[in-house]
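About this split. The held-out portion is used to measure sequence recovery: a designer receives only the structure tokens and must propose an amino acid at every position. Recovery is the fraction of positions where the proposal matches the reference. Here is one held-out target exactly as it appears in the evaluation file.
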């Protein structure tokens, strides 16, 4: 289904201009369009104040209406913010937030796909943050063929691993990229091109590697460091 007749589409990731136009035309619904929330190839997603603690383990996306699980006490317990409008999330617990943004049914079977990724700050805090788009079969993905089975709502599963953290409405922990066509359709598979920008890419297959050879530090051979406690 062609939802945007005046645009000449090329397979690949949408630009900032195209993402803003998608929002303005209502294909991506936001509470407020702020240009700083749209990067050159992605849109920031923000927490709402609808939050849950998942009480019996992760509820994985399964292609059904995800909100059904949130209404069951055996699966999730609704959380309320504290007096500072903050949610205190404890390490080793599983939480789920509805995001402020949602996707329009106009994207169903439209040829527009999506891939969500957590922001880099999440890894530094040792927090797992995985996006769930209602109706999808796996984390982090938008497949337009499955969008019609959900509501277009987007959720974020948050699991603090090491530290307790605080979040509040409007916090952005993840972002969404949209593609015209599947993301893999825009992958460059030419060995000569890969070798031109990935140094020493063996066989031109475009893989990055980490050198774990020991290095002498203070008279000790080490390959990595491990934190032993907080100060």
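Reference sequence for scoring:
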């Amino acid at each position: 289904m062609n939802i945007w007749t005046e645009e000449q589409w090329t397979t690949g990731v949408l630009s900032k201009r195209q993402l803003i136009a998608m929002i303005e035309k209502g294909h991506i619904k936001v509470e407020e369009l702020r240009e700083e929330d749209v990067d050159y190839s992605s849109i920031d997603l923000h927490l709402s104040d609808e939050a849950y603690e998942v009480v019996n383990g992760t509820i994985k996306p399964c292609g059904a209406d995800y909100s059904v699980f949130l209404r069951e006490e055996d699966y999730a317990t609704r959380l309320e913010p504290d007096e500072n409008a903050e949610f205190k999330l404890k390490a080793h617990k599983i939480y789920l937030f509805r995001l402020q943004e949602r996707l329009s049914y106009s994207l169903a079977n439209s040829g527009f796909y999506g891939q969500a990724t957590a922001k880099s700050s999440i890894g530094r805090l040792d927090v797992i943050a995985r996006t769930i788009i209602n109706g999808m079969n796996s984390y982090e993905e938008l497949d337009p063929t499955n969008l019609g089975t959900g509501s277009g709502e987007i959720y974020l599963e948050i699991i603090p691993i090491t530290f307790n953290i605080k979040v509040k409405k409007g916090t952005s922990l993840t972002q969404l990229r949209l593609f015209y066509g599947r993301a893999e359709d825009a992958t460059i598979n030419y060995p000569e091109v890969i070798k031109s920008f990935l140094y020493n890419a063996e066989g031109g297959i475009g893989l990055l590697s980490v050198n774990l050879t020991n290095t002498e530090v203070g008279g000790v051979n080490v390959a990595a460091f491990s934190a032993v406690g907080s100060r």
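Annotator remark: The first helix runs from residue 16 to 24.
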